[in-house]
Design brief:
The chain is of the alpha/beta class. Among the domains are: about 160 residues, Rossmann fold, CATH 3.40.50; about 70 residues, no CATH class. The protein contains 14 helices and 17 strands. The chain has a 6-stranded mixed β-sheet with strand order 1-14-13-17-15-16. A 4-stranded antiparallel β-sheet has the order 2-8-7-4, with no helix packed on it. The protein is globular, with a radius of gyration of 21 Å. The model has no long low-confidence stretch (mean pLDDT about 95).
């Protein structure tokens, strides 16, 4: 098989896939869970339970508010002990439902059997409705409501479904484990998404550092309209625009989306969640999370209930190493350091990475030497050094002109900078300010 890749930029950080080959371990619920009502891009959901209410696993506890929003369900059974403000993984305090766990009683309509359901009896509209009800979002990290991507905008037409099995972030292996252990369910999930979109062709992209996953998925998709394509190992291969370019040689326009070139992209975790929603009537109440680090005793892939504190995962992986300096939510390239280990796992939590003092130590920042390495590795064709300079000078209108909103925040620029300049930090600052300017213009 000829390996494909995107053409512009990219880097090759050490992979450190320490938990590769580890089976998914079922993690028992903690005594208390905290379930935020905003675990997705869009409008926060509206809480429909009160303190003292008894809830079951899979019960709706917060209803979507509008089209770009998602339902939130109880991931455990027990009593609602609080509906209050709690810190999230970013350190912001947001509304959440706290449940004190008692037993493990599930909503009766959920099929908890291990039987694979192959026949897809629902039509496209019924599939979208079931995914809305189940509160499915993008599990690759973006957390965009899945039903929105399944609803093709007027004037657009989806030709291809691309399934993202790349998992290019160093350390993370949850998607790899899912492809190995739940391949048959993934096959049905892909077919569900194809039917929901009304497309006849699907491509599953997997980086070549997962030869067992490529082989497994090629075997089970043989004779179907789903092709499996190996990809060169290069970060950020899993970016939507990079994946579309690599697999179909189509260029998503600046400010555009894959649907603008006839493509819809879903992560393998999202596809698996769709299978469970459509075929098992199971809402998104748990996900696979990688917990890893060079000095962690047992790097693991856990199936975790939403709302479980991060500290509970780390304990089950052997405990916090003494030399830990940072705990990263997500991968080391795009993830962000946690302010507390008491924050909950949410729908977008793909990994927890423990970084030692030595690894976390930042080198002294020196003056830009005009080497242009940041420009060479930028997969979006931007000029990161210029973006940082503009952000420092608060020239946000110029940043908009320079297409800062096209930045996918992959961190390749900061990773490669020989002057150790915090390029991504300033670009994120600039993006936030430019987004405010755009919203203010639309509000007029």
């Amino acid at each position: 098989m000829k390996l494909k890749t995107f053409s512009m930029g990219g880097v090759h950080p050490p992979e450190n896939k320490l938990s590769a080959g580890r089976e998914i371990r079922e993690l028992s619920p903690s005594d208390v869970v905290v379930i935020p009502v905003s675990q997705h891009l869009g409008t926060p959901s509206k809480v429909i339970v009160e303190r003292g209410d008894q809830v079951k696993v899979g019960q709706l506890i917060a209803r979507a508010e509008g089209f770009v929003s998602t339902n939130i369900h109880a991931s455990v059974s027990g009593k609602v002990s609080k509906v209050d403000i709690f810190p999230d993984s970013s350190g912001y305090r947001r509304l959440a439902v706290q449940i004190k766990v008692n037993g493990d009683e599930w909503v009766e309509t959920i099929d908890r059997s291990g039987t694979l359901v192959k026949e897809i009896s629902l039509d496209a509209e019924e599939i979208r409705k079931r995914i809305v009800e189940a509160g499915i979002v993008g599990l690759g990290g973006a957390t965009f409501p899945t039903h929105v991507k399944l609803t093709t905008p007027r004037g657009k037409k989806a030709e291809y479904l691309i399934v993202n099995g790349v998992e290019c972030e160093p350390y993370l292996t949850s998607d790899h484990a899912l492809m190995m252990e739940r391949s048959s369910a993934l096959l049905v999930g892909i077919q569900i998404m194809m039917k929901g979109l009304g497309v006849e062709k699907a491509i599953l992209g997997i980086e070549s550092n997962k030869p067992d996953a490529i082989s497994r998925m090629q075997e089970i998709t043989r004779g179907t309209a789903i092709s499996v394509q190996g990809l060169k190992v290069k970060y950020p291969q899993g970016g939507e625009k990079q994946l579309v370019k690599a697999l179909l040689n189509r260029e998503v326009p600046s400010g555009g989306l894959p649907i603008d070139v006839g493509v819809v992209v879903f992560n393998v975790g999202t596809v698996h969640a769709a299978y469970e929603a459509v075929q098992k009537n199971k809402p998104l109440i748990e996900r696979v999370v990688t917990v890893t680090g060079k000095y962690l005793k047992q790097p693991s892939n856990f199936r975790v209930r939403i709302g479980t504190p991060v500290s509970h995962l780390i304990e089950q992986a052997g405990g916090l190493p003494e030399d830990t300096a940072k705990v990263i939510n997500g991968g080391p390239m795009m993830g962000k350091a946690l302010a507390s280990l008491d924050v909950p796992v949410v729908k977008g939590t793909s990994g927890i990475v423990l970084i030692s003092n030595e690894e976390a130590r930042r080198k002294a920042v020196i003056q830009c030497i005009r080497c242009t390495r940041c420009v060479q590795v930028c997969p979006m064709g931007l000029e990161p050094y210029l973006m940082m300079n503009l952000a420092e000078k608060e020239m946000f209108e110029r940043m908009e002109t320079e297409r800062v909103l096209d930045c996918i925040e992959c961190g390749s620029c900061s990773y490669t900078c020989p002057s150790s300049r915090p390029l991504l930090d300033y670009i994120r600052l600039g993006k936030a300010e430019v987004a405010k300017l755009v919203r203010s213009r639309k509000a007029v």
